[in-house]
Design goal:
elongated, Immunoglobulin-like, 3 domains, about 25% strand, single chain, five-stranded antiparallel β-sheet
Amino acid sequence: MFKIIFNIVFISIAFSQVPCILGDVYVSEGANHGDPEDYIEVYNGGGEECTLAGFQLDDTELLEDFTFGNIILDPGAYWLGYEDAEDSFTSGLSGDGDIIVFADPQGNTLTVILEEALETADEIELSQSFTADGIGCYTMPTPGEANVDCFVFAYGCTDPEAINYDPDANLDNGSCQYSTVSCVLGDVYVSEAANQGDPDDYIEVVNGGTQECTLAGFQLDDSEELEDFTFGNIILFPGDYWLGYENAENSFNSGLSAEGDLVVFADSDGNILTLILDVSMATDDGVELSQSFDIDGFGCYTMPTPGESNADCFEFCILGDLNGDSGWNVLDIVTLANCVLAENCAELEYGCAGDLNGDGGWNVLDIVTLANCILANNCN
C-alpha cells in the first residue's frame, strides 16, 4: 500500500499536470529557409511550469501535422523543433511565405504569418521573431535562445565589384552598376596557364592596365575558331586576376594538351593574342609546373600560382648541358672547363648543370665525368 502511494507522489512531482495556457505559451520564432533549416520555437512567457501535452502545430488550420507529448516548459524556457527531426513537425515552411498555427487541446489557435525568407548581404538567412501578440519582424537567427532586436534593413548595392558598391548596405536592392569601359587587349592578357597537374588545367588573365574595365565579349579558346568561352560582365580592377579552371562554372571547356597547345585570347572586336604552351613539365618532386607570361607574351615555366602574382622562372638543371641546348657535346666541356678555371661557374645561366658529381662545387672531376659520358654517349 505504501509503495503505491509513493509512486503516485513521485509521478506528481516529476511531471507537471498543469496545462500551458495559449498566449502565455506562444510561437516566438520561426525560420522558413537556410541554415539552420526550417525551425519553430515555442516560448513559455507565463509565470509557472506547464505541459504542452495535446498542443498542436501545423502550417494550416487543419492541424494534422504535429501534436505535442508531455513537454514540460519552465517559465522562460523554450521548445525548439526542426523540420523532420524526431518528435517535431514535418510540414515544411515555404520560403515564399507561410503561416504557423499553434493550438491548445481545446482547439483554440494562435496564427503567426511568416513573410518571404530573406538573407543578408553576408548570405545569412534571417529568421522571424514574434511577440506574445503575434507581432513579428525579421531577426538574426537565435533558435532556442532569447530573440534579438529586429533586423535593420539597409538597402543598396552589396556587390564589391560594382562601381556603386555601398559597404553599409546589408540587403541588395538590384541597383548595382558596373563599368561599361571595355578592357583593352594587351592591357589585359593571359598571364599564366597550366596544361596538366594539380591544380588541373587553368588559365589566368590579369588586368595590367591602369583602370577598371569589363571583359564582356572577350573570348578564350585553344584555337583561333574561338568557339569555346565568351566572358560575361567580368569586372577587373587594375592588378586583379580572372582565374578559370577547365569545365568549371563560367569557364572554358577546351582542355589544354599536356603535349603543348595554344591559348587564344580575343577582344570583342576579334583582335587576338596567342600564346604557345610548351609540353608540360614536372619537378623532381612531382610538382607540375605552370607557364607564366609577361605583357609581351614571353613565357617560362614557373611554380603554379593561380590567381596570384607569378613566381620567378623555374631553373632547370640538365646535368652536363652547360650551354642549354638540350644536348651534350664538346661545347659543354669547353664551357665547363673555362668556368672552372675562371671560378665563375655559379654565375653562368646553366652553371648548376656543371656539378656532375654532386659535391656542391665545380672542379676537374666534373670535367672528367662530363668528358667520359660524352665519349660513351650516356650522359642522359
